[in-house]
Design the sequence.
């Protein structure tokens, strides 16, 4: 029930202690402000990590080889390990029932590419048709490599959007011929990539064509796979880890590499990386929650101290109230009412200021690992609940003390 006299008492107490109330409210407001900003940064980090993983398929497994670092079967370390089409075929044949997308890759960096008077140096990659989806690429115009191109060693090229802008200056490119290190290729497609300019400075050609024009025989630089979808993340991660371990073991066996050689064969599992990043991000979020809550507790302690002082100053008044029949719960309600009011108002000020700042500045923040920090409605509701609980907690002990004041002792208080 609305009690105007109680509200008058609250405002009278605040008026008498303006500076003390302001400073205490400031500590609560700053606690909520810091908590919301920290949680928003945590969300921004999650957005940034998610954006990073958009560059490739989220469940991609990439395999490449290096030099051996461990002696094995009488062979010295330092051997260069090169994969070939047989490694790719072995992996595909052994796992045909669980592989979704697949491609071998042969790459050459810094290939001079010319169109009329324009030229540039780009990475050229020979791939299979599935590579479009392994790289999460979107066709802007034309088509991607198809199986017919692979079978007939066609000299066709799919160029990145940045290559298109560099060489064609936004003019028509489809059907035109570009010169890659002295060999003519017909442009049949243009793609864009979520990774941006860095990923769009590449040219893709059929893998069989790349192996032929670069005299690579059946050599591969790397292989890439995705597995069939699973019912949940844990099952997908387990299947991905098992596949990664198996393909690493198979390649080491085929190329006589020591099982404990961690350098010769590299397997990058994006699901494992995703889990690591999100586990780290969750830890950071919990840390931010801890820092914010500790800051709020500091403010709540300040409010509690104020309420203790108020109880001390109003000891005689409380004694008179109890002497004329006031119940303990009404005394507790009076103190809690004031405590919750001060805490809630200060907290809402901190909440509104933090949301305003995030609305103003958040969309402008786009670094590699923090993008558009923000908080959702559930977080705002959670902070409101924290405010009410904090206010009640701040006032409980002073209210309990007030309720236990004996009228005769209160009346003697000076």
Sequence:
């Amino acid at each position: 029930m609305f009690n105007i006299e109680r509200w008058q008492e609250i405002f009278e107490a605040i008026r008498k202690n303006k500076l003390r109330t302001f400073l205490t409210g400031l500590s609560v407001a700053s606690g909520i402000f810091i908590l919301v900003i920290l949680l928003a940064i945590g969300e921004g980090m999650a957005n940034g990590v998610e954006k990073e993983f958009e560059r490739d398929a989220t469940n991609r497994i990439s395999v490449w080889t290096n030099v051996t670092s461990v002696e094995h079967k009488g062979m010295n370390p330092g051997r260069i390990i090169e994969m070939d089409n047989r490694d790719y075929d072995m992996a595909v044949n052994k796992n045909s029932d669980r592989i979704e997308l697949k491609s071998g890759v042969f790459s050459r960096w810094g290939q001079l590419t010319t169109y009329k008077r324009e030229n540039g140096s780009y990475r050229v990659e020979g791939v299979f048709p599935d590579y479009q989806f392994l790289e999460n690429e979107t066709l802007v115009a034309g088509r991607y490599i198809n199986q017919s191109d692979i079978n007939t060693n066609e000299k066709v090229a799919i160029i990145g959007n940045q290559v298109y802008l560099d060489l064609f200056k936004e003019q028509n490119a489809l059907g035109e011929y570009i010169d890659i290190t002295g060999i003519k290729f017909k442009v049949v497609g243009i793609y864009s990539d979520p990774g941006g300019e860095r990923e769009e400075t590449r040219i893709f050609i059929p893998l069989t064509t790349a192996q032929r024009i670069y005299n690579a025989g059946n050599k591969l630089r790397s292989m890439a796979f995705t597995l069939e979808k699973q019912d949940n993340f844990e099952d997908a991660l387990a299947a991905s880890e098992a596949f990664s371990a198996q393909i690493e073991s198979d390649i080491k066996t085929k190329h006589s590499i020591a099982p404990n050689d961690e350098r010769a064969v590299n397997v990058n599992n994006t699901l494992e990386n995703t889990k690591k990043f999100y586990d780290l991000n969750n830890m950071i979020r919990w840390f931010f929650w801890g820092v914010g809550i500790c800051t709020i507790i500091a403010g709540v302690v300040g409010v509690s101290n104020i309420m203790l002082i108020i109880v001390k100053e109003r000891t005689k008044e409380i004694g008179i109230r109890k002497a004329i029949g006031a119940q303990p719960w009404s005394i507790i309600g009076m103190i809690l009412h004031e405590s919750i009011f001060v805490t809630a108002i200060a907290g809402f000020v901190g909440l509104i200021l933090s949301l305003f700042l995030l609305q103003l500045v958040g969309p402008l923040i786009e670094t590699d690992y923090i993008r558009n920090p923000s908080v959702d409605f559930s977080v705002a509701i959670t902070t409101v609940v924290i405010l009410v609980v904090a206010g009640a907690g701040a006032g409980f002990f002073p209210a309990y003390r007030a309720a236990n004041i004996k009228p005769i002792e209160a009346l003697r208080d000076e």
Notes: The radius of gyration is 34 Å. The longest helix spans residues 270-313.
